[in-house]
Amino acid sequence: WGPGTTSEGLAAAAGRTEGALHPVQRAWSDEQVPQCGYCQSGQIMAAAALLRDTPQPTEEEVADALSNLCRCGTYPRIRRAVARAAGVPQPTDGAPVPGLAPPLHQVEES
């Protein structure tokens, strides 16, 4: 994909059929990342660019690439979605992906 690719055209630019989702978009939905929508396009495009250039990124590479502001604080879900899109096996028991923060609903209040 090239300059001017938007989140709406991401799947088509990656060679997906019409109506299909890009793996990052699918993972975003599966991990229930969206809340207010403020950061979604930027976060999705940053994640897709990261995975295009670095298919198996480290936690540090994910943190460096996804520096967009998320007003709702869904960073743990965003990182889980990137891991899912990268093909990192997801726990089936609801446990967090090793090395990644747990989803917000699993974070205990201190």
List keywords for this structure.
single chain, mainly alpha, 5 helices, disordered C terminus
List the helices and strands and how they pair.
Blueprint lengths: L9 H4 L9 H8 L9 H14 L5 H7 L9 H11 L25
Helix pairs in contact: 2-5
Low-pLDDT parts are 101-110
Q: Kindly state the mean pLDDT as a whole number?
A: 80
The biggest beta sheet reads: none
Radius of gyration: 14 Å
What is the overall shape? Answer: globular
Q: Level of helix content?
A: 40-55%
Helix-and-strand structural type: mainly alpha
Strand tally is 0
Beta strand %: under 5%
Query: Distance between the terminal alpha carbons, to the nearest Å?
Result: 44 Å
Strand/helix succession: HHHHH
Short description:
The protein has 110 residues and is mainly α. The chain contains five helices and no strands. α2 crosses α5 (75-85).
Describe what you observe in this structure.
The chain is mostly helical. It contains 5 helices and no strands. Helix 2 crosses helix 5 (75-85). Mean pLDDT is 80; it is low at 101-110.
